[in-house]
Each structure stands twice: as C-alpha cells, then as structure tokens.
From TrEMBL:
Keyword presence, Zinc: no
Superkingdom assignment: Eukaryota
UniProt cross-references to InterPro entries, sorted A to Z: NAD(P)-bd_dom_sf, SDR_fam
Single Gene Ontology MF annotation: oxidoreductase activity
Signal sequence, renumbered to the chain: none
Name this protein carries in UniProt: Short chain dehydrogenase reductase
PANTHER family listed in its UniProt record: PHOSPHATIDYLINOSITOL-GLYCAN BIOSYNTHESIS CLASS F PROTEIN (PTHR43157:SF31), PHOSPHATIDYLINOSITOL-GLYCAN BIOSYNTHESIS CLASS F PROTEIN-RELATED (PTHR43157)
A Pfam family recorded for this sequence: adh_short
This protein's UniProt keywords: Oxidoreductase
Organism from which the protein derives: Apodospora peruviana
Keyword set includes Oxidoreductase: yes
C-alpha cells in the first residue's frame, strides 16, 4: 500500500477543513428547466443534494436500487419543499448489476433530451469481505467504478448536446470519490498489473480495495475530462469530506483493529451530511468551476485541492509527462462493460 500521507498539507486541510461551506442553497438561483441525475439519492448526501436542487425548482432524477426507499425519500423532500415547482423522478438503477444500467439510461432518455449535471454519487464502502457484484466483480470496484463508468458513457451524447446550448462550463459530470483515494489506494491509485478477468490477482485488504475504487473514480474523471473537453463537458472528482452518513453502515461488520479504527474515526472526525452535499453542489453548480478546471480535484467544503502526486501523474497521458494509468484503466473499464452498451 502507498504511504497514506495523512500529514501532507493538502490532506490535513481536507480532513480538518475548518470554516463554513463556500457554496450553499443561498448561492443558487431558480433552477426551473434544469435537469439533474443523482445516483444513490434516497439517503445521505445524495438525498440532501436532491432536496437543495428540487427546492430551487429543478427536475431531479433519483437513480436508486430500491424503489420503496426512493419513493419514501421523495415524500420527505416534497414535504420539506412544499412550494417547489420542480419534479422528482425515480430511476431503477443498481450499480452493482451492469444489466440495470442501460435500461435506466434508456428510461431517462425517453423522458428527457437534456441533462445539465450527472452526479455519480452512489457507492459502497468496506462491505463484508467477499461480496461481489452480479457480474462477479469485487463489490467496491464494480459498484464504485464500473457502474458509474457505464452510466456516464451512455449519457454522454445527451450531455454533449446539452453543452452546445447552455452557458460554457455549466454541463458537468461529478464523480464522488473520497479521501480514501489518497489515504488507502496503491501506488498510482490503481495497479493495472493486478487487474485480470473480473477482479484482483492479488487480493488487497478491505480498506485498500475501497481506496483503489475511489482512486478509480478520480482516474475516470480526469480521463473523461481529457476526452470530453472538446464537447464542453466539465468533469471533476470530489472528496465530499468526512461525513456522518450511511456509507459507514458496514463498519460494525468488520473485525478486530479495523473495526475499532473505523469506529474511532466515525466518532471523532465526521461532519454533518449536509456539508458533503454542499461540496457536491459546488462541484456541480458553482461558477468557480469552469471548463479550464475540468479534471480538478475538489474537497471540503467546496475548495480546489491537489491530489496525491503519484495519482496525479498516473492520471496524465504519457504525452503530457504522465504514466497513462487513467487511459489504461479507462480502456480496461470499457472492456468490462462492452456487452452492456
């Protein structure tokens, strides 16, 4: 495992951000006519983000695994914003099953011809050891990387068309990563030599696998930024912050020192969930995020940071002095999802 680098200045500022969020619901105008898609929006920061956008009269597609939970969240959101003229729509999507992604995208496209921001928000963290996706991938690699990758690919033509008629830099894809990308991932974020078939050749530890999947989000973001900048689509990856969300629901399923460490972390270092939603909101709507910032790494609570150096270098193509890992991970991901396009 690469050195966590917890005491690197950038990491200290991300772990102890201080100050108030820089971009909140007070900073956004009427969003009537705008269309947003948020994965995993029935709970946590996704639900908070959906409320903010819906309250400003946006159309929000909530892409979730369980319809009953999504409908319940919709009722909560509507009750909290009774004067909204926006819309909430449910999309059935299980990022842990690639077969569900294209039908979800097709359902969205049947009702919309534009998409202003795709928030790749959903994810899993340190599930019980050995859990796999429906296609047999490590659950974190499949759910956190391959599912969002496929969804983004299928929605890219619509994003590109929207970017042609909207103000420059306002059509975006936000990839929700984590500080774990820097703390727990291997050298270069993802070790391509350790990926084969549907998983790892040498099985990493639970937190390391989570870190790899979150570094994968960053690598997908920067490669997407490189490929889609010409179409006017902004792509950014974010560390939403250390949040008291349901992402930590599997902490008690861990064993020994790992469980104790995670429990101590959740007790002393977590912030309100709404702060993470503000980080996403900044990435998705702030005018500080422009086409020139595509490929950026954004952290709490709406600030630009520099990711760990080896991951940054891995994200750049060899023609720009990088190692080309992002391009290789992109190509590997495309091979995995090809039959589900």
């Amino acid at each position: 495992m690469a050195s966590p680098g917890f005491f690197r200045p950038s990491m200290l500022r991300q772990n102890f951000p201080g100050g108030a969020p820089t971009f909140t619901e007070k900073n956004i105008s009427d969003l009537a006519g705008k269309v947003y898609l948020i994965t995993g929006s029935n709970t946590g920061i996704g639900k908070e983000l959906a409320l903010i956008l819906y309250s400003a009269n946006a159309t929000v597609y909530m892409a979730c695994r369980t319809e009953s939970k999504a409908r319940s969240a919709m009722q909560d959101i509507k009750a909290a914003a009774p004067s909204s003229t926006g819309r909430l729509e449910f999309l059935a999507l299980d990022l842990g099953d690639l077969r569900t992604v294209k039908p979800a995208a097709e359902e969205f496209l049947a009702g919309q011809d534009k998409l202003h921001v795709l928030f790749n928000n959903a994810g899993v963290m340190v599930p019980p050891e050995g859990q796999k996706t429906a296609q047999g991938y490590d659950l974190q690699l499949g759910t956190n990387c391959l599912g969002p990758f496929l969804l983004t690919h299928l929605l890219t033509p619509t994003l590109a068309r929207t970017a042609k008629v909207e103000p420059a830099g306002t059509v975006r894809v936000v990839w929700v990563a984590s500080m774990a990308a820097e703390l727990y991932s291997v050298k270069d974020g993802v070790d391509m030599s350790n990926l084969a078939g549907k998983g790892y050749i040498r099985e990493p530890g639970a937190m390391e696998k989570y870190g790899i999947s979150k570094a994968g989000n960053y690598l997908h973001s920067v490669e997407y930024a490189r490929r889609q900048k010409q179409d006017g689509i902004v792509s950014v990856a974010i560390n939403p912050g250390n949040l008291d969300s349901e992402l930590y629901r599997s902490v008690n399923d861990q064993s020994g020192f790992q469980r104790l460490g995670l429990q101590a972390f959740t007790k002393f270092m977590l912030h309100p969930v709404i702060n993470g939603a503000y980080t996403e909101l900044f990435a998705g709507l702030s005018d500080q995020v422009t086409l020139d910032q595509t490929g950026a790494w954004i952290g709490p609570w709406g600030r630009f940071f520099t990711i760990r150096k080896d991951i940054s270098v891995a994200g750049k193509p060899k023609s720009e002095g990088g190692k080309g890992v992002a391009e290789k991970f992109w190509d590997w991901s495309m091979e995995q999802v090809q039959q589900y396009l």
